[in-house]
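During the reporting period the student researcher (J.K.) took over the structure-prediction task from the postdoctoral fellow and processed the backlog of single-chain submissions. One of the processed entries is reproduced below for the supervisory committee.
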Amino acid sequence: MWTTHNSFLPMVSASWSLHVTAGNPIQRVTQKLKRFKFTLMAWNRDTFRNVYVVMEEAPDALNAIYAETALLGDIDDRLLAEIECTIHLNTALTQHQDLSTQRNRLQWLQNGDRNSKFFHTMNRIRKTSIGLSSLLIGDVLFFNPEDILDRVL
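J.K. obtained the following structure tokens:
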């Protein structure tokens, strides 16, 4: 979500290019990272706001524009406002989708695939429960489960 925004890379460059003179190289990198964290948090708050709030506000604003248009007729200003509001809503929906994708990916990385133990256990049980499908005694090959059972016991 952040990397697709046109002001992201200039913001990163501006924050990272500010010099830190105190301390050894590791301390300088640490100070730059701390400064960048606060810069990024402020930029995120100012640029994206809360995606959920935007998703709630945009349809209301769009409905208000539709109501004005129904009462007063088409005016270029309202048409332009409608287009801007629609773009704003679509952007918020795209950001919400990106955020949900990133959150799901993070949860998967943190928790892993919880079904893997179940899957491997079931495969192990299935492999051990598979009986003899054929039995060769001398030159005779038996396929019938009853015949195999009779010959084994």
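The committee noted the following: The helical segments are 8-17, 25-48, 51-72, 76-111, 116-129, 145-152.
J.K. will present the remaining backlog at the next meeting.
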